[in-house]
Structures are given as structure tokens and as C-alpha cells.
Design a protein that fits this description.
Elements (H helix, E strand, L loop, with lengths): L14 H14 L4 E7 L6 E7 L3 E6 L2 E6 L13
């Protein structure tokens, strides 16, 4: 299965389980990216953790977690020798 197109949904209820799960996932994420949403005592009732390079970055805005889009990485143009 292509790692870039795979999606996995896991549920970890207790905070200790979420912490253990997050540690295990971040150790193997490699060049990919991952996201963990877990229950927390916040205004929204959940917290977000990310690892790896993502275009969407969670940002705190007056106690609310919003998703900010970053620019698409620019690829340097390479020229072949003439």
C-alpha cells in the first residue's frame, strides 16, 4: 500500500493511551505526516497533535484551534546541461 495515500483511523480514549499511541506513531512517520485528535479539557473538547510536513498547521486563536494553510513548497527549476 502506498504510504502517501493510506489513511488510518484510530481511537484512543484515555490520555495515557493517546500519549503512548502518539509516541509510537511519531517514531515511524518517516517522511510522511500524521495527525492525532484526542479528547482534552479545552473549549472545543479536543486537542490536535501533528508530526511531519503538512500544509495545514493547527493554530490557536483565542482558545480555538483553527487550521492555517501554508504555501505550496516551490520546486527549484533544474536545467539540463546544454
Amino acid at each position: 500500500m502506498d504510504q502517501r495515500s493510506s489513511t488510518r483511523h484510530l481511537r484512543a480514549s484515555p490520555p495515557a493511551s493517546a500519549t503512548k499511541l502518539w509516541k509510537a506513531v511519531t517514531e515511524v512517520v518517516g517522511t510522511g505526516a500524521t495527525l492525532l485528535v484526542h479528547p482534552a479539557t479545552t473549549e472545543q473538547g479536543y486537542a490536535i497533535r501533528t508530526a511531519g510536513t503538512r500544509r495545514r498547521v493547527p493554530v490557536d486563536f483565542d482558545g480555538l484551534t483553527l487550521s492555517r494553510m501554508t504555501a505550496t513548497p516551490k520546486v527549484k527549476e533544474m536545467q539540463s546541461p546544454s
